[in-house]
Amino acid sequence: MISVILYDLLTPEFLLEAYKSSYFPMAESETGEIYMHSPEMRAIFPIYDIKTPKNIVKLAKKKIFRCTINYDFGLVIKECARRKITWINDVIIESYINLHKAKHAHSVETWKENEIVGGLYGVSIGGAFFGESMFNKVSDASKFAFYFLVEYLRSRGFLLLDSQYINEFTKNLGAIEVPKVIYLKILEKAINLPCSFVD
Question: What is the CATH number of the domain that holds 89?
Answer without folding.
Answer: 3.40.630.70
